[in-house]
Structure formats: structure tokens, C-alpha cells
Amino acid sequence: MKKILTSILTISMALAGTTAFAQASIGLGFLNSTDIMKDNIKDVNLNGFYVGADYNFALGTSGIGVAPGINYQLVTKSDSNLGYSGTLGKANIKGDRTQMFVTVPVMFNYGFQMCDGLVGRFYAGPTMSVGVYDKIKSKTSGEILGIKFSSDDKTDMFDKDGYRRFDVMLGGGFALDCYDIVRFKVGYDYGLINRWDSDNVKSHRGQAYFGVAYLF
Predict the structure, then answer these.
(1) Number of folded domains in the chain?
(2) For position 62, which CATH number holds?
(3) Residues β-bridged to residue 140
(4) CA geometry: angle at 192 spanning 134 and 197, to 5°?
(5) CA dist 72 to 103, 104, 140, Å?
(6) What confidence tens digit (pLDDT) does each residue in 61-101 have?
(7) Residue 198: pLDDT band with limits 50, 70, 90
(8) Does the structure show a pLDDT above 60 at 191?
(9) Does residue 147 form part of some domain?
(10) Residue 27 belongs to what domain range?
(11) Cα–Cα distance measured from residue 91 to residue 80, given in angstroms and rounded to the nearest whole number
């Protein structure tokens, strides 16, 4: 992990002097994040948004470039349909999960002129991901045998043994630059590292996104 991050930072710093063909962008968009579970365990699917920026360095005049960047991501999921209802009474369980990540993508891209004012751009590369927040809030309430009850619980996933913050993802997508002002892009990344260091649980994170960015 440290060697990969060091290599990415070294490449980015080496390219920092190539400002003649550089372009910055800031953007935001929709994000769908899925913890893809193994061994017939149900996947955990969360939706949210991302905001971030990148800096694209053109490598000569071939249309090939590399764009290091940084993003903040927030995704959440709310389940309100869990519970029990029967002859003994009823119980309602509501669980909310929220995750936050900071990611550092380094995307290699190839741009080509589609028509006047429109440039298509295929991109692919690694993304370093760090989990900064992952908590589950649950509330249980109801009435069993005439007795009312209520309880609130909060679980910090990073307090669990074997649950990892760090990930290296690989992915890519397609972007459309309009009149060198606005960029629309869609893509997908898949995490290479098992986020659970456990014999019983295995999980890899996948993320799909669609966004818009302003080009400087």
C-alpha cells in the first residue's frame, strides 16, 4: 500500500512542471457504493454524493493525459421496514448506516475530438480510498405482552477487529467535455482489497458514479 501511494505521489510531482498542457476541474455528482459480500451474505448498497477536484496533465500532443485528484464521498442507507408483528405484540427496527471516504484517483485518459466543441475522453486507473467514517445507528421500539420498550444503539464499524479503512480500487469510465467549460462523466471502480480480515466475512467495495465538473 505504501509503495503504491509513494509511486503515485512521485509521478504526480514529476508532472507538476508540465503546466503548458494542464487543466483543472472541480465537480460533484451522484455516487452508488456497494459492499459486495461473499458466501451468500446480502450486499450492502448505499447512495449519496461526491465532491472533488483534479488536474489533468497532457502528455505531449497525442491526446493522452494523466489526472491526479482528490474527492470527498458520503453515502447513506436507511432501512425502516424491519421488525416483528404477531400475537405477542409488535416491534419496529430502524437502522441507518452512513459512510464517508476520501479518495485519491490517478486517472490516465485519452481524449479525442468528436465534433466542434465536444471532446470525448476514455479514462482508467487506480484510486486510493480511505474510510473516515462508517457508523450504524439503530432504534428498536414496540410493545410485547403489553410492555412498551425502546432502545438506541450506535456501532462504529472501525472499532470492529479486522475491518479495514484502506482500499486500492481500479476502474474507469467515459467523460464528455463541452466547449472546454463543462464535463459530464460516468464511471465505475472496484476495490481490490478485502475490507474484512476475517475467515467468516469477505467484502469488496464497488462504486458507480455520474457527475458534472467545471473546467478551468
Answers:
(1) 1
(2) 2.40.160.20
(3) 93, 151
(4) 60
(5) 7, 9, 32
(6) 788 999 999 999 999 998 755 555 566 566 666 788 999 99
(7) confident
(8) yes
(9) no
(10) 2-76+100-129+165-215
(11) 12
